Amino acid sequence: MLVVLAALFAVSVVVPFLHSRIGRKTFFVLAAVLGAGFIWVLSYVPAVLNSSQAAAPGQPNAPPEEVFEWIPQLGAELAFRMDALSLALSLLITGVGALVMLYCARYFGHKDRNVGPFAAELFAFAAAMLGLVLSDDLVMLFIFWELTTILSFLLIGYSAHRIFARRSAIQALIVTTFGGLAMLVGLLWMGELAGSYRLSEILDAAPELMSIHPTAVDIAVLLILVGALSKSALVPFHFWLPAAMAAPTPVSAYLHAAAMVKAGVYLVARFAPGYWETTYWLPIVLGFGLLTMLVGAYRALRQTDIKLVLAYGTVSQLGFLIMVNGLGTQDAALAGLAMLLAHGLFKASLFMVVGIIDHESGTRDLRVLSGLVRHQKPLFWVALISTASMAGLPPLFGFVAKEVVLESFYAYAEVTGAEGSVLGWTVLVGVVLASALTVAYSARFLWGAFATKTYEGQRLADTTFHGRVSATFLAAPAVLALLTVVLALYPAGLQALIEPFAGRFEPAEPGTDSTYLALWHGLTPVLGLSVLTWLLGLGTFLLRVRVSAVQARVPALVDSERGYRNTVRFVDWFAVWLTARTQRGSLGYYLFIILAVATVVPLSVVLFTEHTVPESVIAYEQPLQVVLGAVVIAGGLGAIWAPKRFMAVLMVSLCGWGIAGLFALQGSPDLALTLLLVESIILVVFVLALRTLPAGIWTQNPAKFKFGRALLGVAFGVVAMIAVAISMDSRTADPVSVEYPWMSYDVGHGANIVNVTLVDIRVWDTFGEITVLAAAATGVASLIFVKRRDVQRRELHEVPTGSVGRIMPDSALTSRQVREIQVARSFATVAREAWLVAGRTLAPEHRSIIFEVVTRLMFHAIILLSVYLLLAGHNSPGGGFAGGLLAGLALVLRYLAGGRYELEAAVRFSAGALMGWGLAVACFTGVLPLFAGGQAFQSFIVDLDLPVLGEHHLVSSVLFDVGVYLVVIGLILDILRSLGSEIDVRSEEENRRRSISASRTQGHDVHSQTTLGVAR
Amino acid sequence: MTINLTLLIVMGVMLAVGIYLLLERSLTRVLLGIILISNGVNLLLLQTAGRAGLAPLVTDGAEPEEYFDPLPQALLLTAIVIAFALVSFVLALIYRSWVLARQDEVTDDEEDRRVAAKPDYDPEEDAEVETETSEFIEDEQMTLKEGGEDRGDESR
Lengths: 1016, 156
Description:
Chain A is mainly alpha-helical.
């Protein structure tokens, strides 16, 4: 079975290519394939008939099955099982499918290019539908179920240029997917309750499950029924099916009459043997089924489009099918399956007839169609047979099936009536009434499509066909009509086929014989009911003018479609309304809301829970703490006040330095050291990045809501203080870090607990962090350089002396500025040659000899110190971060003193390479112990006994610190090159352009200015 | 645990001032707000380490409880360096915003405004459509008709 399904799907994939070669002849191929599928299904008949339908999988007498392992963790398997129910539906799917394909070969034109994909979708649908009825696994069942939904969506939307088709497709998709999701929950629940996703096992376990988890099973079955109801277009989901008539007629004939809408009926029939006794089953199945049957038939009488007459008729019949298949008696099961097949035969045939009429005459309006009965005899005969079968007239299969259906309802009514319930009789009356309406709309259909009509005394012009209806075109509906006759005359074969399925149910009244399919059961009350339906129906049809007058006066009380449209509109409107309210486009507004929530929620938690005032409170550890705290607070307030950009930055730096002091006082030299270095670098970076921005911080849009912001800030600060105080007060457990000292000394081989924590105990954390650093550095570089970060700078010797940082040619300066520059330059001249490698490249007014000298003196010492911090950090304050930051600071010095060429001279590597190597080293440290059989990042000691330097213990985690060191240097280098060097270049270029335009207006010759031109 | 009022108050002030600045329009001040908030959070972490103690360098004879709790310190060290990277990134953003738009402030998102101003009427879903009585109406007519509808919708 798996092979056949896979083959069918494979065929559907190649269909578009086939279509581009041989055009609409493709459909003959597809019909042949499905015909072969029909024969393949038939080959299962003996095996199915000889097996016991209720046998659990794996038993020797079980129906043919195939199981492949798929997702054992979830209990999902590729399980297929061919029992009598599956067999009957498979025959319907492949048989009608083959005929529909044959029909398509004449329905579509030669030229239409969309037909290739259409054919593929239609064929894939046949495969999915076959998979659906063969699946014995709930997950597979659901997947095929949704596949048919999606393919139905695609097929309805075939005429995608028509708004009506698009809308109908989406409507069908939404409605059936809604039901499908409810069903998914039900199926999964059922699977979990039963402990197995095998459908056959779940059905076997039904009595057990219903006694152990009665409520859960009730609800799960209810959810599954919602899926079935939506798929089979029952009230209140029925409206999607008439709208789906926007699909090409072959699709209507196949999906929306014979196959897909039967999926819901199939599901009901599938679960009925085990679960028809659950609480909600009969009320839903009978209630909604009967309502649908009546509503559908009633509305079919109102339609003027013959395709819609059929569509509402289908809705009505689907309600009928769900009722009878869900009734749960032996007779009803037999009748239900027979009725399902009968409906498939006559309804598909009728849709094809409608398709032919539409195709040949260009209309389906029964107010326009006229006189076809005289001109299109063969078509009329086909339609007559199928319509009569629909109305339940003998000697046709529709009659045979309807007889047993009525019989089973009659028996049900008798049995429940004997128990004193009127339910059965009510249902029977409803069914008879609806059947009478069925007769009426059948007659209306036949009359509407074929009769010669008069309008206000005037005879309508005869409808003419574009051409003769070819035999191939008519073949498919004719074959179906013929089958309707044959099955009525020889029902025994079919009886044998579906009897095993009916055998899974008990008879309505224990001990009675089960019914059988036949044209003549004798003069039974049921025959009387049938005759009654014909008479009532015919009467309704003959009085059609009055009936429609009454119908026109009855207001449509409930219109599900309008309800659906209104729901969709409301969702749209609400989405737009909510967006307009919340999507203000102002970042500050969003932040305000977020922070307000972050203030109010913890505050309400604090207010509505009980707390005691903390007892253990100290004002300060030592007086100096208060002084530093005051400095920090002053810095913070200063940042608010500061009118100039750099003043504000300085104030914030003040905070940082104060906090570094607080760290040191608490007993944390590592933190104090790191924070001091970071604050210094941040200050420099700030100045570098913002130097092109105006000095004043005020913008054109003065800040609004000052008071509100201040209030929120204070509230947040206070709430944070209270929350911290409460949580610290309620802490009772010892910190985990009491174990850290011995761990770091004995296991990590280092005395600096903080450093060992970073490079050993919590090394994964640090590893993640340096990765983030590398990413952030790359982000900075890409924001500034945009294209690539390693710009090729000129070789040092190519850069003319004093060329870097010249802003304007001297001639463009005022005399006062010239004098100032001369003074500045006088400090830049020095007898000795350069202190720094690239110091000479700077414009004289930008040089500071003192700075160059100091840098020259200090650079190597600082680098040495940084290496010391790196290596000694394992046992004393320091480490990779502090070391790297210090080295970075040294580079900052070089850059500030000697300009960008000096920085290039100082570090020849690309920043990316440095960070990459750093990460590689850190990674290497982590991976290395794995080869020695240890864990990732496990520390180990290498003892070295060097001749002169003496005995040394090298701890492997120091190597990790080297990686950190390199990453940090790379980060700072990247920042310097982006926010330093590159911005230098940019602003020099900009100034040059500005001075050129300035000098042009003054009439100077630009090219004579040698100081112009920017060196990369 | 013992609560250190000085640290608690300084933390509160840092957070309050940070949030006040964060809600400004000027990007520079927003950045300063971020720095101050991270300062406040750093102080929060510091307080979770409890009372002041010995620097966490293992020395003979010292009990584990005597050291200043090393775990928050390790967390803080990471936080400080990450904050540095973050500040650099925002600085690059500010520079870029200045170069491209000469703007040093958080501007309103025009796209957001446009979305908010969108009407809830969607012709694809809400227009009244005639029901069709044939699949074989000339396609040209259909496209013409739809084109007309679309224009009508826009003028509405």
